[in-house]
Write a structure and sequence with these properties.
mainly beta; 4-stranded antiparallel β-sheet; globular
């Protein structure tokens, strides 16, 4: 499985950004895909997840109502639409994948930096 995240950049507080993650290497119908982030000086944290088949989603409380995770089955691409961005959202964002029954995420993209200025 290969994951490649892109779409990060510099945005002002209150602005929006969409991250993409191109997935390849196998069929993902029995996978859960997710976004994580690591802010400077902090541990990596979960942001959002989506079940590739069926589309069930989950979000961290800190991003609920502001971020939306989605996927395009035809393009094998995962997205994270981020609205109402705050300086606290500044982090390197990673996409990840795991088989539904797995405990941990086995596959990781390289990360894309999001910087939110105040």
């Amino acid at each position: 499985v290969q994951l490649q995240a892109f779409g990060g950049g510099l945005v002002q507080a209150g602005g929006s950004l969409r991250l993409s993650c191109a997935a390849s290497g196998r069929t993902f119908s029995n996978y859960i895909m997710a976004w994580f982030r690591r802010a400077p000086g902090k541990e990596r944290e979960f942001v959002a997840s989506i079940r590739w088949s069926g589309g069930g989603t989950g979000y961290a409380d800190s991003v609920k109502g502001r971020f939306t995770i989605s996927r395009d089955n035809a393009k094998n691409t995962l997205y994270l639409q981020m609205n109402s961005l705050e300086p606290e959202d500044t982090a390197v964002y990673y996409c990840a994948a795991k088989v539904i029954i797995a405990v941990a995420y086995d596959y990781w993209g390289q990360g894309t930096l999001v910087t939110v200025s105040s």
